[in-house]
Amino acid sequence: MNLQAQPGSGQSQYRILREADLRDYLAGLPAIVAHLGGAPADWSISEVGDGNLNLVFIVKGTSGGIAVKQALPYVRLVGESWPLPLSRAHYEHLALVHQARLAPKLVPAVLHHDGPLALTAMELLEPHIIMRKGLIGATRYPRFVEDISTFLARTLFFSSDLSLTAAEKKEGIADFAGNHALCKITEDLIFTDPYRVAEQNRWTAPHLDATAAAFRDDLDLHVAISRLKLKFMGSPEALIHGDLHTGSIMVAASETMVIDPEFAFYGPMGFDIGAVIGNLIMAYLASAGHERSPGERASFEAWLLETVEGVWTEFARKFVALWRSEAKGDGYPVSLFAGEAGATRLEAERQAYMARLFQDTVGFAAAKTIRRILGLAHNIDFEWIADEKQRAICEARALKLARSMMLETPSFTTIGAVTKAAREVRNWQPEFAN
Amino acid sequence: MNLQAQPGSGQSQYRILREADLRDYLAGLPAIVAHLGGAPADWSISEVGDGNLNLVFIVKGTSGGIAVKQALPYVRLVGESWPLPLSRAHYEHLALVHQARLAPKLVPAVLHHDGPLALTAMELLEPHIIMRKGLIGATRYPRFVEDISTFLARTLFFSSDLSLTAAEKKEGIADFAGNHALCKITEDLIFTDPYRVAEQNRWTAPHLDATAAAFRDDLDLHVAISRLKLKFMGSPEALIHGDLHTGSIMVAASETMVIDPEFAFYGPMGFDIGAVIGNLIMAYLASAGHERSPGERASFEAWLLETVEGVWTEFARKFVALWRSEAKGDGYPVSLFAGEAGATRLEAERQAYMARLFQDTVGFAAAKTIRRILGLAHNIDFEWIADEKQRAICEARALKLARSMMLETPSFTTIGAVTKAAREVRNWQPEFAN
After folding, report:
1. Cβ within 8 Å of residue B246, ≥6 positions away
2. Nearest chain B Cα distance for residue A173, angstroms
């Protein structure tokens, strides 16, 4: 492990940068100065971080702009009472380098990284917006399926046992093992707290009080989420992004950019794929809450479900294609599947492998949904529905679908089964709606 | 990671010790001098390594004895053409310390460890013999079930997600990630080579020629072994011994000692349990080859099958008992299973967890059997059967059982189903026997 990654080391050089500090610091970096253009005194600098964890500055000069992200030694959303290691900036940088190599143009280019300051400067993404906001505004992104499926297939395949030797894989796992504080956030907030009494939980009350109580009492659900948690902790299948919701994706009409991989570690692939699919389904079920007139967003909603189907279908197609053409890893050695009969049998096994991965995806998509409605961190898809009862109706539908996906995972054998269930639950009315 | 563990580092100080070097070296260690007693010049030193990888010296003084194990920078069995990192001595030492803490008196006490020399001095086990030899001689070990089940339950449970926090677990995984060269031996020799043409493979020819060819052509088997290989590489469930056959166990009438954990890493628990069970089944099916008169070893063979049953049953009982009383890990958080209903549901889930672990155990036991008959490293259970045809009959029975255990794993739902199948195949005659 890189010692710089260890919490504590290098902290003597760490300081939280204010605007003036940042200007001086950047002025000392020739490549950044050249990229921005103009005199440092004339750069515009604004702090825009609306995430939960870090400082984010936008810096603009006469010829270009950059985004500068600095980790704080605590969770920004909560404050200094919830410390969080600066080392996450190191892991985020490592992951960005990995992703840029495998999915170029789908992640922002890194211009500068400073380990001790826990700081990374990246190209400024303009005119991109956070995808979640675009979806609330019913904007379609025609490139999204193509781009995100490429990102997923390539970043996951090339860090898996199908591409790496076992030795390379173990080294990769060790490189990210120190990022456990970020994993712990996921373990607690996604896989534990929504299913028990926890101070930080919240939900749309009183409408969802009974549902939240039912989730806290549902032991079948507790077994299912515990199995998913064990899988999250103990299945280093690939280097995953670890937080791939629609708030970690920036979009423009012609471009998709994945950002913020600070939760990266070697984990189950289905967690990333499930994050994308779960968040698209939430956008779909929140959509009714953003209607100004009935049916106004119907064709957008249909596009969303096509997108859900496309994400899985295209991911699976590209992943299997890579497996056919780029299998250099220690898993499924080609020498055991020689000849035509071997090739046919291996192809059948690829499909079986994808079927197991799809099951994981369905389970994790459900877990990601439930945590956004009953846990600490909510999303604006639902939060921006001003009418609380209407919001609760949308959320209740999402919870009903997620519960079914988690408890009856094997019944969802295709992505079509998922979108069908989503379409059905879209018209369901919870009791409190009457 | 401990830098001393890295292949290459410290090698400047490494030298292969001859008898005279060792005497001088040990004479400089006061604790060893005190333990041995007498003048260093009077110590008896003999090199006794009959394993595949290392030098092993027995040193005796007037008041005590020690065993000294030194790793060679290559595979002893093959020679300098097959290099193997000295760092394995570091991992073996780490694993010994872990095991001694959790299963005291079931592993030899470490008296001295020297990282740069890749050397460990341990208490001398006398009058113990290698268990495999004892079983060939039809000796019963009344303490074995009790001891090995304690060793397995405690070393596995306390390094699992049921006992450790996710952060502790990730640190442990990283600590052993560098031992990949030893894992690679297993990946190749157990999970790949026996199923393809490989120069190092051998088997009892010509009797098993057709069977070996059938195993190389059986694509269902190739899928099954590839799934097991993927599980071996990608399931860091616990710190496993990694080579727990009956040649890694030393026994006396009243004592069981597990030795040689140089293959240790975080892997699937079923690999260790399956190693024990697979090797006991091989001892059972080899037994007919060691008979001087028909039925002579019948009651010993019955004891062997009782032992197989006892190993799983007692392991499972102890593991579940630890889970009930010592669950401090991040897996299956107790807060999700509160109250009487929660306790009942969690207990059912424990049984489901053990059922999944048993499936892994059956699969790995089969893999360990096949590699000993069709791969590079054979075992003396079979090799010491002088009559080649008789040996081949015993081996063919073991292969038939192992193939069934690997391909029809779900049909073996209890350990009784395994011993029943073993008993049935004991009386099966392969075609070439007639």
Report:
1. B130, B131, B132, B135, B276, B279, B280, B283, B381
2. 7
Q: Are strands B238-240 and B265-267 parallel, antiparallel or unpaired?
A: antiparallel
Tell me the per-residue pLDDT of A149-169, one tens digit each, with 9 for 90 and over.
999 999 999 999 999 999 999
Neighbours of A371 (CB within 10 A): 25
Span A236-256, pLDDT tens digits? 999 999 999 999 999 998 999
Q: How far apart are the first and last CA of chain A?
A: 58
| Mean pLDDT calculated for residue range A371-375 | 98
DSSP per-residue string spanning B29-88: -HHHHHHH-S-GGG-EEEE---SSSEEEEEEE-SS-EEEEEEE-SEETTTEEEEE--TTH
Closest CA to B6 of B169, B83, B119, B118: B118
Nearest CA in chain B to A221: B336
Chain B residues touching residue A183 (CB < 8 angstroms): 166-167, 170
Which pair of structure tokens corresponds to residue A169? 């894989």
Q: What is the ipTM of this complex?
A: 0.95
If you measure CA to CA, which chain A residue comes closest to B221? A336
pLDDT tens digits for A302-345?
A: 999 999 999 999 999 999 999 999 999 999 999 999 999 999 99
**Which amino acid appears at position A224 of this protein?**
A
Q: Does the distance separating the beta carbons of B331 and A226 come in below 8 Å?
A: yes
- CATH 3.90.1200.10 residue ranges for chain A: 129-433
In order along its 434 residues, chain B shows pLDDT tens digits of 333 344 444 457 899 999 999 999 999 999 999 999 999 999 999 998 776 789 999 999 999 999 999 999 998 878 889 899 999 999 999 999 999 999 999 999 999 999 999 999 999 999 999 999 999 999 999 999 999 999 999 999 999 999 999 999 999 999 999 999 999 999 999 999 999 999 999 999 999 999 999 999 999 999 999 999 999 999 999 999 999 999 999 999 899 999 999 999 999 999 999 999 999 999 999 999 999 999 999 999 999 999 999 999 999 999 999 999 999 999 999 999 999 999 999 999 999 999 999 999 999 999 999 999 999 999 999 999 999 999 999 999 999 999 999 999 999 999 999 999 999 999 999 999 98
Domain with CATH 3.30.200.20 in chain A: 3-123
Q: Which long-range contacts (CB under 8 A, 24 or more apart) does A294-299 make?
A: A297/A138
Q: How far is the alpha carbon of B323 from chain A, nearest alpha carbon, in Å?
A: 15
* Nearest residue to B94 via CA among B4, B188, B176: B176
Q: B3-123: which CATH number, 1.25.40.10, 2.30.42.10, 3.30.200.20, 3.40.50.300?
A: 3.30.200.20
Give the count of Cβ contacts less than 8 A between chain A and B.
Answer: 128
Q: For residue A38, give how far its alpha carbon lies from the nearest alpha carbon of chain B (Å).
A: 46
Question: In 3D, which of B390, B392, B384 has the Cα closest to residue B208?
Answer: B392
Q: Do A331 and B229 touch (CB under 8 A)?
A: yes
Pick from A368, A373, A256: nearest CA to A310: A256
- Chain A residue with minimal CA distance to B2? A1
3 state SS of B358: helix
Which residues of chain A make contact with B167, given a CB cutoff of 8 A?
A: 180-181, 183-184
Distance (Å) of CA B346 to CA A246, A363, B320, B342: 35, 20, 11, 6
Fold of the CATH domain B129-433 = Aminoglycoside 3'-phosphotransferase; Chain: A, domain 2 (3.90.1200)
Name the token pair of A69: 């992200």
Question: What amino acid is encoded at A242 in this protein?
Answer: G
